[in-house]
Structures are given as C-alpha cells and as structure tokens.
Amino acid sequence: MAAHRRAFIAGVFEHPTRKAVNKSLGQLHREVAAGALADAGLTRADVDGYFVAGDNTNLYPLSFIDYLGLRPKVIGATDTGGSAYVTHVGQAIEAIEAGKCEVALITLAGKPRTGGAAADPVPDWPLPDVPFEQPFGRAVINTYAMCAARHAYEYGTTSEQLAWVKVAFSHHAQHNPNAMLRNVVTVDEVLESPMIADPLHRLDCCVVSDGGGAIVVVSEAVAKALARPLVAVRGYGDAVKHQAGGKVDLTYTATRWSAAVAYEEAGVTAADIRYASVYDSFTITVLEQIEDLGFAEKGKGGAFVADGGLISGVGRLAVNTDGGGLCNNHPANRGGMTKIIEAVRQLRGEAHPAVQVPGLELALVNATGGWLGTRHAAATMILETK
Amino acid sequence: MSDYLSHPAVNPETLEFWKAIGQGKLLIKGCRACNEAHFYPRAHCPHCDADETHWVEASGRGSIYSFTVMRRENPQRVVAYVALEEGPTIFTNIVGADPADVRIGAPVHLQVSQSQEGLPVPTFAM
Questions:
Q1: What confidence tens digit (pLDDT) does each residue in A333-346 have?
Q2: How far apart are CA A285 and CA A269, in angstroms?
Q3: Would the CB atoms of B91 and A138 count as touching at under 8 Å?
Q4: Contacts of residue A139 in chain B, CB cutoff 8 Å?
Q5: pTM of this structure
Q6: Which residues does A194 contact at the CB level (< 8 Å), separation at least 6?
Q7: Which residues of chain B make contact with A373, given a CB cutoff of 8 A?
Q8: Which of A189, A213, A250, A325 could cross-link A335 (Cys pair, CB 3.0–4.6 Å)?
Q9: What proportion of chain B, given as a percentage, has pLDDT over 90?
Q10: Per-residue model confidence as pLDDT tens digits over A232-257
C-alpha cells in the first residue's frame, strides 16, 4: 500500500444546530472553527492556513478572515459547491506538504433554513452557460431528476430502489440526537411523498438546514504533539464533468475520474472499503456515485442500494451513518463537510455504537458539487486511521 | 426584440444565435477542423479547440434524451434534454404537451417560445 500523505485531519466539528434563529452567519463560522480547533487541541493562534467556499463574488474569504481574526499565510477559496470541502482538505494537505503552512482551518456555515436563501442563485448572465439554461427554468432539482430519469430508462432503476437510499439513512439518523429527521421511514412513505420533479419525490431530496462544520488539517510535526486520534489522508482526487459541447451523458458522474485518482494514490480499491460517506443531495446522487466508486457495476447501483444495502451492519457497505443530508444535516445546502466529519468519527471509533463499523481502518469520502446534470465537480478522498 | 445586445443574456459571441431564434431558426456551431457540431455555441470548438467554427442551421428535429416535470410550478414545466439530429444534446423545455404524455425517446420538433426574461428561446413540441 502507498504511504499516506504527510498531513493529518486532527480536528473536526459539526455544529449541533439545524435552525439558527438567533445566530449570525459569522457566529456560525466562529463556533465551528472554535469547535474543530478545540477538538484538535489547538487554538486560533496556531492557524496559518484558511479555506472557505461560499460566495467568492463577495470576497467571502476576506470577510471571514477578518471576522475570525485570522492571520493566514495560505488561503483557499475554491468553490465547487458541496464538494468544495473535500477539495479544501486536499489543497490544505498540498500546502502543508509544501511547507507553506502547518495548521489549516476549513469552515462552512450557512442559514438556508432561517435565512430563506434559495438553493439556486440569481442568474449571472455573463457566465457562458447561463443564457442557454436559465430561460428554461434550470434548478438544482431538475438537473438531478433528469439523471434519475435517464438512469431508470437505460438500466431499469426503480423509484423503490432510489427510496432505499433514504430508508437506509433514516435507519442511521434515528441514533443521531442532532439529526433533523430522526424517524425511520419506509419505501412506501418515500414513494407516497409528493412528487417534486419526476421521478424524485420530496423524500428523495436532502433537508434544508442551518448550521455548519469545520476541519483542522495539520502537519506531521504539529500532529505529534496532539492527543486526539489522527486521521491520515491516503489519497484524493478531483474531477469535473460537464456537457462536453453537447455530448451529454447523465448516467455517470465525475466521480468515475476523481475516484480513479484517489484509489491509485491510496493503493486501495472499492473492495477494501467498508464505510463510505457519500454526498446525498438526492437519492440518485448516491446511486450514481456508488456505481462510479466501483461498489457496483454501472447500472447495478439500484440492486446494490436496495433491501438495506447501505445500512450499517446490514449491507456490505455502510454509508452515511450520521443520517446524511437526507436526514441529518445539509448546512448551506452543501454536503461535503459533514461527509468528512462522519468519516472521521467512524475512523476514530466515535460514531454512534449502533452504526459504528467495527475495527474500521479505511474510509472513503465522496462528494459531488454543482448541478449533476449540467456541470459538476467530484472529489474523492481515502482516509485511514493513523 | 429589436436590440438583442441590450439583454444581459446576449453577448457578441452569441448574438447571431439570438437573432436567428427570433426568426424561428435554431443555429448551432460546426467546426471546420474536426467537423463536429457543438452547443451551446462558442467561438472556439470545445471538442478540438480550433477557432474555425461556423454557424449551422439545425433542422429543429430531435428526440428527448431525458426530462422531468416541475410539479410545483404552475403551469408544470417540462424541463428536458433534447438530442438534436445534428448531434448535440441541448437543455430546453417541452411545450404544448400533457406532461403525462412525455417520454424519453419521443421525437420532437422546434417550437420557439418567449422566455420569462423576454427572450425568444428554442423549445420543442412533440
């Protein structure tokens, strides 16, 4: 197996709130930053690298560096939507390995639930693609729904199979006291929930929640002095998939490419993975990623996820044991951050006992960001206990 | 619209497209270097990166590659990808059809609509 990278995830924190009525966006960033630093056993004074996504057009990184009172030597603001935080960990590792910083802080916070912010931003007409999509009502959900429709057409994937993704994560969420939706649901309940964009029902969609999370990535030298269990990154990869000038194929994602890079760098395959955090913006997102990660052949993802295939202790692969975005939390409409946090909990043996995968040494994190059916990024990360 | 360039969606690279669709013609781009068509239209070819692109009038015929029905919009909008006869698959709407009748693979033809933004846009009818 390949040697791990020379930087470690030393601290993580998921904000317990799901509805932040009395908190500002700045406070949420501050609280997740403080939480992750405390988890690592570090303080603000140790931070010399800072990564944040969000709205780059408003110079978002500068505002939060100012608000938090940081003095970073390395800053990163790559914004690919929900996958950005996996990418940020990768970029933090690169910066640390290059000797540019030693303690990188990554924060995410948002208030889409109380702030009423729409998932779909105001049209930015100068972007080259916008004039050819916005007039047709492009929205997050219809770009995912068309993937689901085409996957069903080519491979016979059923709404029941998609529903099993939600059912599995609801089984996990019942054990998470902070989860927004803790009730176990059935396949029938998913299918009987209102149709939003065929074939996706309301319960095929992730929750809208306030909150946030943060991650601290540190150098080997800093890591040696810390008490908490360290998580090493064995490999990661980024990729982007788009319409390719009109050669549209909605049945696979950029994960096919990002995973190949991550597996190669880590020296492992899907067969070695027993826990995966997979961004579940919608049920179809999970199903296509499961295939593209190599857990199931293309077109067989429906059979893989059905009948509890993703439930910890039931299926061959445990996925999203916190309840995922479908049941637990989806701060700022971006799922990559909480995916990393739950994978770290699993590798530390700190997931809820009912969903903890015993003796876990390797975990996979995969997130997509953007619009699955038009243009999206994927980021894959293989983590291990150190 | 008399002056397409006054609309924020229109820029010098795509002005011809908007003028044509306003006259009921769907323009896509061809490439003299690789002979592959592309959409949305660019000055360069996204397939081979050559600058030798030219406007091509598409037949307006194609088939539905995928679609969804936005159930909470009134009227319910059918968002679709249509695979044009000339090759490129384009993001669009299916208009004038009962959403219950829309099927992947169904043949469709161009029917220009007026968008909410005041633009003539290429939509398709069954």
A1: 999 999 999 999 99
A2: 21
A3: yes
A4: 70, 79
A5: 0.95
A6: A201, A202, B71
A7: 66, 81
A8: A325
A9: 90
A10: 999 999 999 999 999 999 999 999 99
Range list of H helices, A41-99: 60-68, 84-97
Short-list A174, A232, A299, CA closest to A4: A232
Fold of A7-115+210-232: Peroxisomal Thiolase; Chain A, domain 1 (3.40.47)
Tell which CATH classification among 3.60.15.10, 3.40.47.10, 3.40.50.720, 3.40.640.10 matches the domain A134-208+234-385: 3.40.47.10
Identical fold at A7-115+210-232 and A134-208+234-385?
yes
pLDDT at B91 over 50: yes
Is there a contact between A136 and B79 if contact means CB atoms under 8 Å apart?
yes
Tell me, what's the ipTM? 0.97
- Residue A2 predicted with pLDDT over 50: no
pLDDT at B120 over 50: yes
Helix axes A25-40, A60-68, angle to 10 degrees: 60
Output the pLDDT for position A353.
Answer: 98
Query: Chain B closest CA to A269's CA: distance in Å?
Result: 32
Given a contact cutoff of 8 angstroms between Cβ atoms, the answer to whether A259 and B102 are in contact is no
Q: How far is CA A41 from the centre of its chain?
A: 24
Domain boundaries, chain A: 7-115+210-232, 134-208+234-385
Banded pLDDT at A221 (limits 50, 70, 90): very high
